[in-house]
Amino acid sequence: MRIVLVGPPGAGKGTQAAYLARNLEIPHISTGDLFRANISQGTPLGVQAKSYMDAGNLVPDEVTIGMAEDRLEQADAAGGFLLDGFPRNLKQAEALDVYLKGKGITLDAVLDLEVPEDEVVKRIAGRRICRKNSAHVFHAEYSKPKAEGVCDVCGGELYQRDDDHEDTVRKRLEVYHSETEPIIDYYKAQELVVTIPALGKVEEVTRRAMSALGRGE
């Protein structure tokens, strides 16, 4: 299957993408991984991206599109893929369509993870990260540490990242509404969008998505 996963920050796209890709036996292709791989490998696109990032500028769509297309050329994506974080805007969505058309293939579905805005803010603003090991993540409401401000695993200090402050989260949501939400209407016109309520346990959301894709139990 060839799937695009969309949803606001805090909707759980990364988590769901990993579960779905594993269940569907297709590669999970995330924008973050594309950037990290290209930059670490020193590819021409990675060098371009790093130059923009080091200057504090946004990476142009052309660079991101180039990375995505290069990744889709790899053998493991021949039988399907799950795109997470790409396309991020209409220009990228249109470029993806042109690329796929050139290959004689089409998307099977665009999964839209739907979460109320207040819940998004609560999810992100409540996150607390361990300073010793950023893989240790807690939540002020949903996954509290045994001792406030202290990591259960290693005893490190828990803190709130700048990106997780409520005012920053709301700004990120504004960007999502203005730049990314329009691609949902774009794909609705192609009758590809399947809306998945993303409240509830991770496993429940995954089951809803698999069922919507006709792969339920």
Characterise this structure.
With 217 residues, the protein is α/β, with parallel strands linked by helices. Strand 5 and strand 6 form a beta hairpin. The protein is globular and about 55 Å long. The strands form two sheets. Strands 2-3-1-4-8 form a five-stranded parallel sheet, with helices on both faces. The chain has a domain of 147 residues: P-loop containing nucleotide triphosphate hydrolases (Rossmann fold). The mean pLDDT is 94.
Which features characterize this protein?
217 residues; five-stranded parallel sheet; 8 helices; alpha/beta; 47% helix; three-stranded antiparallel sheet; Rossmann fold
Q: What name goes with the CATH superfamily of the domain at 2-115 and 180-212?
A: P-loop containing nucleotide triphosphate hydrolases
Overall residue-averaged pLDDT value: 94
Main pleated-sheet profile: 5 strands, parallel
Cα distance spanning the termini = 17 Å
> What structural class should be given to the helix and strand makeup?
alpha/beta
The H-and-E topology, N to C, reads as EHEHHHEHEHEEEHEH
Can you identify the CATH class of the domain at 2-115 and 180-212? Answer: Alpha Beta
Alpha carbon gyration radius: 18 Å
Short characterization:
This protein is an alpha/beta fold and 217 residues long. It is 47% helix and 15% strand.
Tell me the layout of helices and strands.
Blueprint: E1 2-6, H1 13-24, E2 28-30, H2 31-41, H3 44-54, H4 61-72, E3 81-84, H5 90-103, E4 109-114, H6 117-125, E5 127-130, E6 137-139, E7 158-159, H7 166-188, E8 193-197, H8 202-212
Parallel strand pairs: 1-3, 1-4, 2-3, 4-8
Antiparallel strand pairs: 5-6, 5-7
